[in-house]
Amino acid sequence: MRILLVHNPKAGSEEHEGEDFIKALKETGHKAIYQSAKKRGIGKALKKKFDLILVAGGDGTVTKVARRLVAMKSEIPLAVLPVGTANNFARSLGFCLSKKELIEQLNDGKCDTFDVGLACGPWGKRYFFEGAGAGLFADYLRAPKKDELKSKAEAMRRHVRELRRRLQTYRARQWRIELDGSDLSGRYLLWHAMNIPSVGPVLTLAADAKTNDGTFDFVGAREEDRALLLDYFGARVAGKRRKFPLRAKRFTKMRLHWKDWPLHFDDALWPAEDEKAPGQCEIEVRVKNAALRIWRIE
Question: What does pTM read for this prediction?
Fold first, then answer.
């Protein structure tokens, strides 16, 4: 296959060189072209004729490329070499093998579709791929972070530990939310519209979420769910496997009334720190069915 490799050399904590990926791709019979995610030219490169776009990076790099592909209405499928920290996007597509194994099995993959979120608000339109939400996790994204640890697992535990600490005194907030015409308004500690099963430090909030079923999963934790959340986070910190205790609700369109508090779309916050936001506004989130092509490796 003719492959465009989009590589983020700064992703994650492990060393990975673009030259090594290109060499491995060529050794398995592919024609590979390199494009750094940190340099100009991605948009121009994506317009060229390729059989596959292979992103070697974390969730941020993957969604950056995916956003461009959707805007271009590209038919070229996207695949991932997960070299970030959380790699939620890659996990949702089953890219859980080693980088060497993934490259060796690219020829055995097949093209599939991937649903995309479209959020309409004061900014106009924006696409998201993992999920959107507000509350505890969105506020945590805005907080300053310490330098990442070398171990991905320890970095994830530290994030969950900090989320649990903040949850103990976090105040639930009133949100006016409508899902497919049903009123789900209330005071939430957090809520998320999930396209994939996990968010942030691999918090599997919607284990049954599918990326090609034309729906998203809404997960919301209210004040009365605080103890359940604390227990879930505590189990994660202790390294125990624990199913998220709250049920998800499937939907295709969400309407919400926003005021004051940050929202996240994937790992990006709105409003940004340097952005002037309206006092309040209406926001609509809906599913764009099969808007992205992806390459699945069984």
Answer: 0.90
- Distance, in Å, from the CA atom of 64 to the CA atom of 75, rounded to the nearest integer, reads 17
pLDDT in tens, 161-189: 999 999 999 999 999 999 999 999 999 99
Domains annotated for the chain, with CATH where assigned, are: 2-108 (3.40.50.10330), 119-290 (2.60.200.40)
Q: What is the mean pLDDT of residues 122-135?
A: 95
Predicted confidence at residue 14, as pLDDT, reads: 59
Residue scoring higher pLDDT (92 or 117): 117
